[in-house]
Amino acid sequence: MKLLSALEDLRHRCSSLAEENSLLRRSCFPETEEKVKHLKRKNAELAVIAKRLEERARKLQEANLKVVSAPVPLKGSSLEQCKKAFARQRAKDLTEQASALLAKDKQIEALQKECRELQAKLIAGKGDPRCLNVVEFDRLLRESQKEVLRLQRQIALNSFKECLRSSKSGSGGSVPSTAAACPGPALNTRSKHPPAAKGVCSGDPAHKKVRQADEAQNELRPESLSRSLLLHVEPSVLPLGPALEGHENFPPKNAVTDQESSQQIQQLEFELKKKRKKCENLEHEVRKKHKRCKELEIQLQEVQSENARLAEENLQLNEKAGWAGQVESENADLKLQVVLVTKERDSVIERNQGLQTKLENLEQVLKHMRDVAERRQLLEAEHKEALLVLQEKQEEVRRLQQAQAEAKREHEGAVQLLESTLDCMQARVKDLEDQCRSQTEQFSLLSQELQQFRLQTGKIDLLTSTLVTSELPLALCSSTPQPHWEKDSSGPALLAHQSAKKVHNDENNESESSQLVPEAAVGSPVSAASSQNQAKKVESQSSSSKSESMQNSPKSCPTPEVGMRVPMEISSF
Q1: What is the C-alpha separation between 343 and 345, in angstroms, rounded?
Q2: Which keywords does UniProt give here (predicted)?
């Protein structure tokens, strides 16, 4: 018990020391935790800055797109109102066109992403027959691009038609004013006018000058420049060509005088100069914005590299902190182990001394236990002998029960045979009544003997309990004289109980047989005589068994276990 208690104390100490060690580890490096938190905050801030830079770059690209596609109003004396209306309508058309193009560009980007993902899946699972074909995705991309071009053409046509309608309503149906104000040199080149008009226009020298100016304007503002600007601003948006940007400078079909044509040429040249300046300014702004975007990208890369470097430093610091914590915990564990080993050594020395004293005491106890074991063996041998005697008695009881059952069967047969004659039955009833009286007297005597036997067994139990508690050597029961009532009551008790049962059963059977009325049975006196002889034989056997049980009863006094079991078995019978 002392060893167990000492072990429990040691376990409690170990658990408490482990808890203290964990607390020390947690509170060991607060600076590293603060650094980790600071680095996490920096990472979050850098991510927010990167998102802001991306949004700003996207907004700049959209602004560049709007600036490139913004209309340039013309200045004229007679057509100012029409040009303002045309400019407003054109701005609306361009905004709608830009929104439609952006939506289509987003759809194209989504389709491109899906195509890339599907291509990656195809590369990953080339052996799978269920994978889609790459040709289908290329076809889808081409169809989407064709759809974008078709939308651009429709927007250009709609803007041109609206310009024509507004010019007709503003000028009151005059063809030269609408032709001079309406955009669309690219659309007029598709053979919309009859050849006669072409011939007339080509023969006029004023028209030749206007056309030369228009060609110079187109040379100064080529389609490749607009495409390069659009590609720098938004790579996925395709240009609409000169149909949308150069339609304001379309020359008139019919010129009235050379003065008007020269004025228009001067205005066109002035506007060309303005447009050149605007194009140069826009190019300069685009270059600046590209430089700014590149600088922002470089800054973003630097920030990302710095973030990666800080993450590596954080990992190294965490590893160092963990290693230092492990070293300190190992040192603390070693110190605790040294203290525990010294305590265990002292406790072992004390335990050895205590165990030596215990060994001396145990040797004395063992001697005493050996004596007790020898006595117990003797008692067990006596107990076995008593059990054997009980088994023999039980066998005798079984034999008697079998004989009783046979006698009962014979008696039932005799009763059935004796039902024919009432005289023989009455004589038999009288004999049985006499037997019942004698047996009741015997039963009363046997019950008295049983009570005496129970009292005797109770006294024996008390004596044995006092002997065991005092641990005195038990004396053999054969040396003490056995009283006369004890010798007589051990054997015949069971037989008396059985005979009483037999008498009771006989009385019940005879009473039942006396109540029955004989129907049609004819018996003989010879069978009655034979049944009487058998009953006498059974009685003689029972008397002989009683005498044998009296002789075979043990003379030694029973053990407490035998004294407890005998009355229980008798009561069960």
Answers
A1: 5
A2: Coiled coil
514 CB-near residues (< 8 Å, 6+ apart): 425, 429
Q: What Cα–Cα distance (Å) separates residue 16 from each residue in 19, 22, 335, 436, 522?
A: 5, 10, 15, 86, 102
390-399 pLDDT, tens digit per residue, is 999 999 999 9
pLDDT one-digit tens code per residue, 34-88 = 766 776 777 677 777 767 777 777 777 777 676 656 544 444 445 576 667 767 7
Residue at 338 is within a domain: no
Structure tokens at 498: 């059985």
CA distance 265 to 214: 9
Query: Per the structure block, which two tokens stand in for 36?
Result: 């980790």
**Residue among 179, 187, 188 nearest 251 (CA):** 179
**Would residue 210 count as lying in a domain?**
no
Cβ partners under 8 Å of residue 132, min gap 6:
118, 122
**160: domain range?**
76-204+236-256
Q: What is the pLDDT of residue 70?
A: 52
Average pLDDT over residues 303-326: 82
Residue 454 is which amino acid? R
Residue 132 resides in a domain: yes
Taking only the tens place, the pLDDT of each residue in 493-542 is: 444 455 555 545 555 554 454 444 333 333 444 344 455 555 555 555 55
Helix (H, G, I), strand (E, B) or coil at 545: helix
Whether 312 is covered by a domain: the verdict is no
Whether pTM exceeds 0.70: no
Vertex 477: Cα angle to 475 and 482 (nearest 5): 140
Nearest to 104 by CA among 142, 137, 143, 148: 148
- Collapsed DSSP state (helix, strand, coil) of residue 477: coil
